[in-house]
Amino acid sequence: MPLESSRFRQEGFHDVKDDDARRSPPRPQARSPRKSAAPARQAPVSARAAFPFSAIVGQAEMKLAILIAAVDPTVGGVLVFGDRGTGKSTAVRSLAALLPRIPVVEGCPYNCDPASPQGLCPRCGAQATGKSPKAKLVPVPVVDLPLGATEDRVVGALDLEKALTRGEKAFEPGMLARANRGFLYIDEVNLLEDHLVDLLIDVAASGENLVEREGLSVRHPARFVLVGSGNPEEGELRPQLLDRFGLSVEVSTPKDLADRIAVVRRRDEFERDPAAFAVAWKREEDRIRKRIVSARERLPKTNVPDATLEQAARLCMRLGTDGLRAELTLIRAARALAALDGDADVSTEHLRRVAPASLRHRLRRDPLDEVGSTSRIERALQEQLGP
Amino acid sequence: MTREPPPAGDTPWGRAALVASLFAVDPAGSAGVAIRSAAGPARDRWLALLRDLLPPGAPVRRVPLHVPDGRLLGGLDLAATLGAGRLVADKGLIAEADGGIMIVAMAERVSPATAARLASALDKGEIVLERDGLASRSPARFGVVALDESVNEDEGLPLVLRDHFSFEIDLAAVRHNDAAWRWHTPDEIAAARERLPGVVAGEDILAVVSEAAMALGIASLRAPLLALRVARAAAALDGRSAVSADDAALACNLVLGPRATCVPTTAEPPDSEPDPPEPPPEEREDEPEGDENADADRELGEVVLEAAQSGIPPGLLALLQAGEASRNRAPSTGRSGALRHSLLRGRPAGVRAGQPGGRARLSLIDTLRAAAPWQRLRRGEFADAPAAAGPRIRVRKEDFHVARYRQRSETTTIFAIDASGSAALHRLAEAKGAVELLLADCYVRRDRVAVVAFRGQGADLLLPPTRSLARAKRSLAGLPGGGGTPLACALDAVRSLADSTQRRGGTPFVVILTDGQANIARDGTPGRARAREDAIGAARALRAGGSRVVVIDTAARAQPLAKDLADACGGRYLALPYARAESISGAVRAISPPTGGRLP
After folding, report:
1. Distance, CA of A267 to CA of A251 (rounded, Å)
2. What is the ipTM of this complex?
3. CA A313 → CA A198, A320, A343, A380, B288, distances in Å?
4. What is the value of pTM for the model shown?
5. Residue in A266, A325, A335, A353 annotated catalytic
6. Using a CB-CB distance cutoff of 8 angstroms, which residues of chain B are in contact with residue A213?
7. In what order do the strands lie in the sheet containing A224-230?
C-alpha cells in the first residue's frame, strides 16, 4: 500500500519572523462551545514570539551546551536540570529563531533534505526519479513535546479522521517526524511517562522511527537532538536515561544582584513589547547565528591532536566513567567548542571547559564521597591538567 | 456599597480583598492566588467578591482533584466522534478557562502531573494539545485560584504552583463582620484593566524589587517578575500610569513576603558596603537618565524591603527567625519518593497502551475505547467476507491497554541496637522497651521490621525484614549485652540492608539506638579514635544512600558523640535520657514516612 501522508505541518511551531499570521489575534473560537467540531489538526501556530537566545542573562554553561549541540548534533542531546525560573525552557525555545534555516523537500512531512539522497523518507524515496525535488527554506524544527501528549501523537499513527470519514488507511506522522533534522524538547522530562522517555531515547539514538499499526508498517527518518529539562525536586531521572544524554548541565538562579536585575528588566521589556525586543536583539542573534554557521563549516576540519585524545582518555579513566560513550562525547563536545571558538586544534583548554557537562552525569556515585560530581570533575581536571 | 477606608492591608480581610482586586485587574499576568483556608463563609465571600470583579462573562472553571488529562487538556470526544462519524474534539478545562479563571479545589493534594500541566499553560499562555490523534493549539490566558485546605505545616501546594503564583492569602484570621467590606467596584477594576498596558515601571523600581527578593532569600526569578506585574496592577488600580514606590512596596509585601526564606540581615550601610559594590556599575552605564543619587535609591530600597518583610506571615516569621523554615519548606524527598507506579496494585493511576499478561492487567474499557474508532476501517477490510463471519467488534493487538496503579511503597523500619557493654550497662532494657513500642507502631502500619544488633567484634542481622511482631520481640528478648561497640560495622550492615530494601522497591527507615561510644574499628581492631572515624564515615555513606535516619542516644547523659553521628548521617537526634520510651515512639512516628497502602 502506498503511504499517503496527510498534511505537512511544519509551518506550525517554529516560524519566527516573516510570518504575519503569528501575530494575528487568537482564533475567536475560544469562547463557549465545549464540543467543537474539531478543526482537527490545523497547523498549530504559536501565539507568542520566543525570547531571544542572546538576551538570556548568564547561564553560560547551559548556553554553551546548547550551542555545542547545535554545531554537532552527534554529541547526543542535552539535559538541563535545575531551579525553577532559570530560563531553561526559554533557552531551548529560542533556538528555532537562532539557527539558520534549512532546506527541506517541499511538502515532505519529515523535513527531508533535498541535497542528501540517502536517508530520505519513504515518500521522498519513492518520488526520487532522478530530478531534484522542489526545495524550500524553513526554520530548524524545534518541537516542544507538551505534557500529556499521547503516544500516538508522538510516534505517529493512523489518521483517525480519514479512517472515520472515508474508511481509509493513511499514516499521520507524529511529533518525531516533525522533529527530524531539528530538536525535540521535553520540559519536565522527569514527569514524562517512563515508557515514552525510553521510546524517545531509542529513536534519538537510532535516528529512525518505526510504526506498526493496522497492518501498516512505516519507517521514517527521525534524527533529532533530544533536549530535556527538569527540576530535580520533582524526582531524579533514572541513571540509565541520564547516560543517554550527551551533555548534562546544572543551572541555578543567578546570585549576583546586577544579573538578577538584568533578567527582570529584559523579561519585562520582552513581555511588554516582544516585537521591539526582538528588533533590539537582532544584531546579537545574527552574531551568534554566524558563529554557529562558521563553526559548522569548520567542524570537519577541526583537528584533535593525539595529546588531547590521550588527556581525554586519562581523564575518563581517572574518573572511572563506564564505557566509551563518555570519552566520545567529551571529544566531540571539545571539538565543537574549538570550532565555535575558531580554533584549528582541540586543546586541553577546550577539554577542560566541556568536561563537567560531558561527564557529570556519568560518574558512579560513591557513597563515601559527599562531594558533588561537578567538584569531583574539577578536582580531577586540576590533578591532571594543573590549575 | 460600603466604602470603609481602613487601609486595606490592615486587616486579614482587607489584605484578601486587595488581592482579589489586584488579581481581577490582571488574572493571567499575576497567574494565581493560593488561598489557605478551610471551606467556609470567608472563602465563599472571597470567591464571590472575585467573581464580581472579573469582567462579565469571564469563564470560571473548577478543576476537580483527580481530573483526567482528557478533561484538563482536551482530547477526543469518543461518543460524539463515533456518532458523527468524524473527529469531534472535547475542549479541555484549560482552554475553556481562557480569559477567566480556574479554581483548583483541594489544591494541596493536586498531583505533580496536574500541577505541571497548569504551570506549563500559565507559562506559555496557551495550551498545546497532542492527544488521541488531535493536534491543536488554543490560547489559554487565565489565572488560577488554588484552594489550599491543608491543615499541617508540612502540607501545602505543589512547589511548582507556588512558584508560578503571585499571591498567597490566609483567610483563617478573617473576622466574619469584616468580610463584607470591599474597596473597589467592578467598574474601577475594569478601568484599571484598560489602563494596565500603559503602566510603566522605572529602572529604580525594577532594581528595588529584585533587591528585595534577593534580600528575602527568594531564589526564583519569577518572584520579582510577578511582583513587578502586581506593582503595575496596583498603579493601574490607583489611576496612575507609572509605578510608584508605594505600588512597589505593596507588591513586595503581597508577593515576596510569603515566599521569604530568610529574614534580611538588618542591612547597616557600613556592613554591606565593603563587599558588594552596592549600585551595580553596569547599571549606571546603561541608565544615563537614572539621575537620582544613590541615597534616594537606598531609601526606596529600604522602604520596599521593609514592606516586603512585613508581608512575611507571622507564623513563617517565627520559623525563619528560629532558622527552621528552610527545613519545613524544603520538599521532603521521602514524600515524593515513596510513591511508585505499579502494574499490580494500589490506587488506579491511569492506563497506557501495552500488552496484558505477566505483570500487567488488561483495562477492558480503554481497550474497547481504543478499538472503537477503527471499527469502520477494519470492517472494510473484510468487505468481501460475509458480514456475519467476523467478530462483531474487531479488537487488535495494538488496541490493548493495561491499567496502571500507584501505591505507597512499603516501609521497612531497620533497628540498629547497640548491645555493647557501655550501652547495656545503663540502657539496654529501656532501649528494648522503646523498640517494642515502635514495633507495635510498625505492626499497625503494616511496616516490615528488621533488627541489627551490634556488640563485641561485629554486627549481626538478628531479624531479616519481616512483618512478624512476635519474631521481632523474641529476637530482642534474647539479645545479650556486653562487649565493645563496633559502630562502623553496624552502620555498614544497616546500609546494605537499606540498599536492598530500596532495590526491592521499599522505603527504608533507620532507627539507631546507641550511645555513640564507638571503640571497635571497621576491621575489628579496638581503638577509639579510629573506630569513631570509621563510624562517621559509615554514617556519611548511609546518608548518601538517602535513607531516613533517627539516632536515639541511649547514653546516661547526652553526649556529642551520638549527636555527631546523627549529623553525619543526616538524621534526627533524640536523647533517651530526657524522653520516656513512649515519647520516643511518638517522635519517631512523627517523622517516619507515610506508608502501607493507606493513602491519604
Report:
1. 18
2. 0.80
3. 29, 10, 21, 12, 52
4. 0.71
5. A325
6. 398
7. A142-145, A182-186, A224-230, A78-82, A247-251
A366, A224: one domain: no
B388, amino acid identity: A
Same domain for A212 and A343, yes or no, is no
Span A200-221, pLDDT tens digits:
888 888 888 888 877 778 888 8
**Based on the structure, what is the number of domains in chain A?**
2
Nearest to B222 by CA among B488, B68, B370, B30: B30
Residue A367 lies in a domain: yes
Q: Is A48 a catalytic residue?
A: no
- Residues with Cβ within 8 Å of B250's Cβ and at least 6 positions away in sequence, in order, are B9, B18, B230, B231, B234, B307
Cβ distance of B139 and A33 shorter than 8 Å: no
Separation of alpha carbons A183 and A140, rounded Å: 8
Q: Show Cβ contacts of residue B315 under 8 Å, excluding neighbours closer than 6 positions.
A: none
The highest-confidence range among A321-330, B180-189, B239-248, B572-581, by mean pLDDT, is: B239-248
- In which region does residue A315 sit, left (phi positive, over 0), alpha (psi from -120 to 50) or beta (all else)? alpha
Distances (CA, A) of B433 to B430, B438, B584: 5, 9, 10
Backbone angles phi, psi at B144, to 5 degrees: -115, 135
Helix (H) / strand (E) element for B536: namely helix B528-544
Domain match, A198 and A319 both: no
| Cβ separation B377–A34 shorter than 8 A | no
Q: Give the pLDDT band (50/70/90) at residue B390.
A: low
| Cβ atoms of B300 and B211 closer than 8 Å | no
pLDDT, tens digit, 9 for 90 and up, residues B133-192: 788 888 899 999 999 887 766 567 888 888 899 999 888 888 777 777 777 888 999 999
The answer on A223 and A77 residing in a single domain is yes
Do A377 and A356 meet the contact criterion of CB atoms below 8 Å apart? yes
User: How far is Cα A366 from Cα A363, in angstroms, rounded to an integer?
Assistant: 9
What is the chain B residue with the closest CA to A158?
A: B133
Q: In this structure, are A67 and A142 located in the same domain?
A: yes
Alpha-carbon span B589 to B574, nearest angstrom: 13
Rounded to whole angstroms, what are the CA distances from A236 to A61, A189, A252? Answer: 21, 10, 16
The answer to whether A66 and A59 are in contact (CB under 8 A) is: no
In chain B, the domains with their CATH numbers are 12-77+85-192 (3.40.50.300), 199-329 (no CATH), 343-407 (no CATH), 411-591 (3.40.50.410)
Domain that holds residue A77: 44-251
Indicate whether A244 and A310 sit together in one domain: no
If asked whether residues A82 and A186 sit together in one domain, one would say yes
* A356 assigned to some structural domain: yes
In chain B, residues with a C-beta closer than 8 Å to the C-beta of A233 are 159, 331, 336
- Kindly state whether residues A230 and A361 are assigned to the same domain: no
Does residue A370 lie in a domain region?
Answer: yes
- CATH number, domain of A315, equals 1.10.8.80
